[in-house]
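Sorry to interrupt, but I need a hand with the structure work. It will help me judge whether the discrete encoding reads sensibly. Write everything out right here, beneath this request:
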Amino acid sequence: MTTETPSLPRTRPPATSPPRAEAPTAVERERPAWLFLAPFSIMYLLFLVGPTIYMIVASLYNTSLVKSGLGTFAGLSNYVEVLGRPDFQSAMGHTVLFTVLTTPPLVILAFVFAVLANRIRRGQWFFRLAFFLPFVLPSASIALIWVFIFMPDTGLLNLVQGWLGMTPSAVLADPNWAMWGIAAATVWWTIGINFVLYLAGLQDVPREVYEAAAIDGASPWQQIRYLTIPLLGRTTTLVVLLQIIASLKIFDQVFLMTSGGPGQATQVALTFIAGVGFTDNRIGVASAASVVLFVVIMLIAAARQGLTRFQNARA
């Protein structure tokens, strides 16, 4: 009689879980972003940071286009010369005058036109296009248009003055009116960007706010005064800052329309810098003048930053 040995139950080998993928490190997560930013960063360093550093260094030397290298060390003598030159003082005065002539209308008119356009339900795209289209035109085209408008005897302005019985005037040839003519051309040319900024800010304000104000009996003017203007306070601060900086950097219109004339009636800071640097070949002095203008712009930007922090603290 044979006895069968009981078979032992077969045991399965323990299942092994697949290895977990390690979480990407912070450097690996940020690598695509740095790759996308690399082209801009390289261009930014080469064409903005690099020239700015060279400008500051060259302002301390007698650098010239006719000699290689930085030249002899001049210290602060270039700054003393620039700040003491009457033509630089006059150019800075004309730059400030241009800023005063252009900033208020470019802020106020852009706000008014944006408020009016925002109330239109249909065809708003047409007003966006109409106001922004001049801004995309090159400065040379703008200069040609307005030189034709101000042309003595045959210009559009003289034609309108003749219809109104006024004495025709040569705006760009008159030292008292040349800067006003350039300011008028600039307002027509650049109002579109401020208009778009204000319109974007207005469209972020819920319409329910205005509807509630209307139900409470607020007139359209009261809605603008007590709702629109306070709600667009930060937008206005940004628009004013950008406009002041853009006006302080005026160059194209002056160079193309009057070349700083008649005489030096429209000579501004950048035309002075271009003349000293590329006509007189004194890069050191031109760099010192550029640093002075750069410091003025940075002080204005710092003031705006302080104002923004003050507004945030009060909010």
